[in-house]
Amino acid sequence: MNVSEVTDPVGHLGEWIESARRRGESDAHAATLATVDPAFVRPSVRTVYVQIDGDALVFFVNTRSGKGQQLRWHPHAALCFFWRGLQQQVNVEGVVDLLDDEAADRLWAQRSHESTLVARSSEQHAVFGDLDAFHARLEQEHDTYSFHRAPRPDNWLGYRLLPTRLEFWATGWHRARPRYLFERAPGGGWQSAVQEP
Ligand SMILES: Cc1cc2nc3c(=O)[nH]c(=O)nc-3n(C[C@H](O)[C@H](O)[C@H](O)COP(=O)(O)O)c2cc1C
Questions:
Q1: Is pLDDT at 3 greater than 80 in this prediction?
Q2: Interval 52-63: pLDDT, tens
Q3: CA 185 to CA 191: how far, in whole Å?
Q4: Which residues contact 167 (CB under 8 A, 6 or more apart)?
């Protein structure tokens, strides 16, 4: 990678996701999302599906989930993509804000039919959820939406993360594995650097 030639690191991340998908990585657009629990000032992580939308990374959150509560009170978040087969990783840090309904619906429309039904059926806030009840709800959703797409439920909100920092890491270019950093410049644009191992 020649960092000085990369003027749009978020778009570059999109190219890496697409390349990982084409090269057979399953869930190439899944990433680990880290949030902060403001009550205890502790980190909290889980996997989410992420899409690139212009200069932002967007994902869905159930408002009743841990991350839904945490992002509401603490907008700083980080994402880590890892593609095992390619031995590539990208870390992203930034600040989130809520998508408006129109943008969230557009994103919802890009999810697979099955994943919309699972999302509608899950109760992420339940610590010891009732699996039978979940399967019953999922079956009901399948019956209701067998011929048309299910609408986005009110408790599924879209967030967009505006990156302040991206770090690209890969084996193969260099045996010693340097990291390629991009940070938001104070006056706009990006500052880039190669960090030697
Ligand atoms: C591959 C994969 C993709 C997932 N995508 C999402 C997602 O887009 N949004 C979401 O809320 N949960 C998603 N989940 C479930 C979360 O990882 C998590 O279990 C759930 O949201 C509750 O997390 P929380 O209570 O820590 O917020 C996904 C899980 C996996 C394994």
A1: no
A2: 999 999 999 988
A3: 6
A4: 90, 91, 92, 179, 180, 181, 182
Within a 10 A sphere around the Cβ of 21, how many other Cβ atoms?
A: 14
Please report, rounded to a whole number, the percentage of residues in the chain having pLDDT higher than 70: 93
Bridge partners of 95, per DSSP, are: 76, 162
In the chain, the domains with their CATH numbers are: 3-195 (2.30.110.10)
For the stretch 119-138, pLDDT in tens is: 888 766 555 567 888 888 89
Asked if residue 129 has its Cβ within 6 Å of ligand 1, the reply is: no
What is the pairing mode between strands 76-83 and 56-62? unpaired
- CB of 87 within 8 A of CB of 16? no
- Mean pLDDT of all residues in 31-53: 93
From the CB of residue 163, how many other CB atoms can be counted at a distance below 10 Å?
Answer: 22
Tokens of 48: 């989410």
Is 27 near ligand 1, meaning CB less than 6 Å away? yes
SS3 of residue 95 by DSSP: strand
In the block, which residue shows the tokens 């030697």? Answer: 196
| Model pLDDT for residues 81-105, shown as the tens digit of each residue | 999 998 899 999 999 999 999 999 9
> Residue 121 CB: number of other CB atoms within 10 A?
19
Q: How far is the CA of 47 from the centre of ligand 1 (A)?
A: 5
Does ligand 1 have an atom closer than 6 angstroms to the CB of 156? no
